[in-house]
Amino acid sequence: MMWFWIGLQCLTLLGVVNYWRNLPTDRQEEAPDGAVVILSVRDDWDGGPDLIARLKAQNAPFRLLLATSGACRAAEALAAKEGGWVQVFAAGVAQDEGQKVHKLRAALRALQPQDRYLLFIDADIQPPVRLIGRLLFPLVRGKADMVTGYRMLLPAAGWMPMLVGAVEMQLATMPRAANATMPWGGAMAMTRDVADRLDLDTVLAGRLSDDMAMGLAGWRARLRLRPVRDLLVASPLDGDMATLWAFGVRQYRHIFTNSPGMWMAAMGGVGVHALAWIWAWGWGGWPAVAVGYGAAFTRAAVRRMILNAVLEPDQARAARRSLIWDVAAPFAVVWAHLAVQVQAVMSDRIRWGGWDYRVSRGKVVRIDRVN
After folding, report:
1. What residue ranges define each of the domains in the chain, with the CATH number in brackets?
2. Which of 4, 103, 258, 340 is the most buried (most CB within 10 A)?
3. Distance CA 337, CA 270 (A)
4. Which band of pLDDT confidence, cut at 50, 70 and 90, is reported for residue 122?
5. pTM flag (> 0.85)
């Protein structure tokens, strides 16, 4: 068992090293005409001054579509201020699909003939100036059909945000194979031709998770899905224990309700590691614990280099808070990760964005507004 434990720790360490070694160094960008960024916002959106400033600083030109449910004063004010660069489309209230999906479908129907590249982002990200150009590069060069970055949480001070950040960092710094990548809705892109080939409006109809629906459709169509490894996009994280735990469970419930096989594969990998830590503490003795902590310290050191390489200095400092859990209690990170995976299968209910959804096989079967 000791040799299995050593091999497991080496394998997880090599995975993080692989991510580090495959970070692009040239980070080439493209700036073609015809790029459109679609952003779904809630009607109480505050206008996202930091996000808009970061989008206006991008190295590549684009048109911004703001998709709302109804009247969003901040979105309308932004469109009035920015002229043709920003357009707002109100989708109304969804009846049989996720509200975000409903808004994205409305924005897709509002595309213009000259819109050749579609980019999707979330309202809570802090994108680097290279975001648009880096997402477009593989598409323009014909290297991919669908391109994605990934979320890097910036946890607030406090044990729970940092624990959730540590769990998410395990996922963010996993090796990314081009043929086994799922897109992340916070930063992804595709060509208009690919969207038309997939019939994206139909793919999204009735769904709750936009990125899972697009990713699974891409897999079925055998598209080339490519991760941009240096696009670990900063996303602040704060909240109390209940809120943050629900966030973690919701991520895996999206996976389970769309693809139980994918959830099973993910839980299998985490479960083996979680059980191995129980063996290390219960029967392996101090040599086994020392091996586990040695690997954890080394993984944290490599992850620190990754953060410093891809994030802005202030963002990297915030993200490094998650590494405290990596070195202080790596077993707790794995056990928490497994716990949210297990809880995810105990219900088909997903509470998200002020709505309570019941989901079956990825389709929304019931919607209730949260009081």
Report:
1. 20-261+343-369 (3.90.550.10)
2. 103
3. 7
4. very high
5. yes
